[in-house]
Amino acid sequence: MTSVTPEPVVVDSAAATDAASVVARLRRTFASGRTRSLQWRLRQLEGITRLVREREPDLAAALSADLGRPAHYAWLGDFASTTAEAEYARKHLKRWMRRRRTGLPLSMLPGKAFYLYEPLGTVLVIGPWNYPVYLTIGPLIAAVAAGNTAVVKPSEHAPATSALLAQLIPQYLDPEAVAVLEGDAAVTQAVLAQGIDLAFFTGGTEIGKRVMEAAAAHLTPVVLELGGKSPVIVTADADVEVAARRIAWVKLLNSGQTCIAPDYVLVEAAVRDRLVDGIRRTVEEFQNGEPAAQRIVNARQFARLTGLLSDHGGSVVLGGGSDDEAVAIEPTVVLDPSPESALMGEEIFGPVLPVLTVDSLDSALAFVNARPKPLGLYLFTGSGATKERVLAETSSGGVVINHLAFHCLVPQLPFGGVGASGMGAYHGEWGFQALSHRKAVLAKPAKPDPALLYPPYTDTKMKLLRRFF
To answer: Is the dihedral of CA 398, 200, 63, 328 positive or negative?
Structure first.
């Protein structure tokens, strides 16, 4: 997600008191053992599925109020993905919870070894504003599947959705094990000050640093799902028409306010004009009958985006307009902006797409590798050799070949960043593991109990020990 300079956080006494009270209550619930059973976990997952399906109209209305998102995009971006994640966890949870036997070296025999996943305790889920249902409840799915109690802190920048989640979550999930605390960063800091067992944050890099800093004071582990400038590489042998359509579609989802949206395109010169023309035609087709400009979440983000369009050194070949009253920006394509411009220096997080011309795949790889590691990297090519080169010579949270962003919807794949784009991964079993402690267990019989192991260590004993160990 886009990074902004965070405001200083002041934690007032009311926020601290509320956080302390809620965390203490959740810890008592966890200590009772009720969250550890398979049955309890399955009931919470079933509750999440019912929450989304039964209250879809209410949730869609809240998303419309917060983001101007049409109901069909609310279903695609927030509801279908959330219920699919919950149902996948329900189907596989029993297997995830099983003990895993391992072998033993000869020196450890006789004995048995296994590891098991146990819940961490009380965790914090900090949701973002851009997909405030999916990206808040998705981590909660992992938390309850792992048997934790959880504090959920929805984003204050999606106030209607935050208020609705605060109302609905206690109705559909165990209210003694899952609590919602609304508010700003002060609430987050107050919960972190309780020394919880894990913090899961989705948002911008700068705020992520704040979360990690506060968590470090208590050695609280963190999962940070951040963002970055996710590039698209289009080679000369790609299916350019398909690439143009898919790039335009994913870029326009949620007005470009998606952490894995394509941030910029690197296209080989031989097919640049065809690609740009294809994107332009696709946007015109998709926007037919829609408002000319796409809604931005708030005035601050709107001002930031219009600022990026003011001095980039490139050519605007599509869009470029904005509507102050509607807080909206036209889908915009900027051809060959300066690599040193602000447009190319920070995550865009809006309906603006820079397209840069490169003379070769080598140039594209050099451009990507000179910048922080992105959350996603997208490649359009018809060459298997090119695919293998890009996989081997770049680092990113995930890669999608000949499409964009769909890896986020595959629960069998880990989803997360690397470097500045985040740490830790979730979805499916990966989320269950991220919100669990993997505990090693070695069981030895009382007999035999060879004297070889114990002092005094003679030369003969040491020779034997060196051989066995």
So the answer is: negative
* pLDDT value of position 468: 85
Question: Does 259 qualify as catalytic in the annotation?
Answer: yes
C-beta atoms surrounding 246 within 10 Å: 22
- The 3-state DSSP class for residue 101 equals strand
Look-up of token digits 């190319």:
344
CATH architecture of 13-227+419-441: 3-Layer(aba) Sandwich (3.40)
Known catalytic residue: 225? yes
Higher pLDDT, 435 or 311: 435
Which two tokens mark 33?
Answer: 């053992």
Q: Which of 46, 206, 225, 241 is catalytic?
A: 225
Question: For residue 106, what is the DSSP state?
Answer: G
Please report, for the chain, the start and end positions of each structural domain, with discontinuous segments joined by +. 13-227+419-441, 231-410
Tokens at 365, concatenated: 């790889």
pLDDT at 6 over 90: no
Instruction: Give the pairing type, strands 436-443 and 415-416.
Output: unpaired
Chain segment 87-143, per-residue pLDDT in tens: 999 999 999 999 999 999 999 999 999 999 999 999 999 999 999 999 999 999 999
| Superfamily of domain 231-410, CATH level 4 | Aldehyde Dehydrogenase; Chain A, domain 2 (3.40.309.10)
359-388: pLDDT as tens digits = 999 999 999 999 999 999 999 999 999 999
- 326-339: pLDDT as tens digits: 999 999 999 999 99
CA distance readout (Å), 4 to 7, 129, 354, 361, 428 = 9, 14, 20, 32, 30
**Lookup: tokens for 351:** 């309906």
CB 50 within 8 Å of CB 213: no
Q: Write down the catalytic residue from 85, 259, 347, 408.
A: 259
Is the CB of residue 102 less than 8 Å from the CB of residue 115?
Answer: yes
Cβ 279 vs Cβ 333: under 8 Å: yes
| DSSP 3-state of 422 | strand
Q: Which amino acid does the sequence have at 357?
A: T
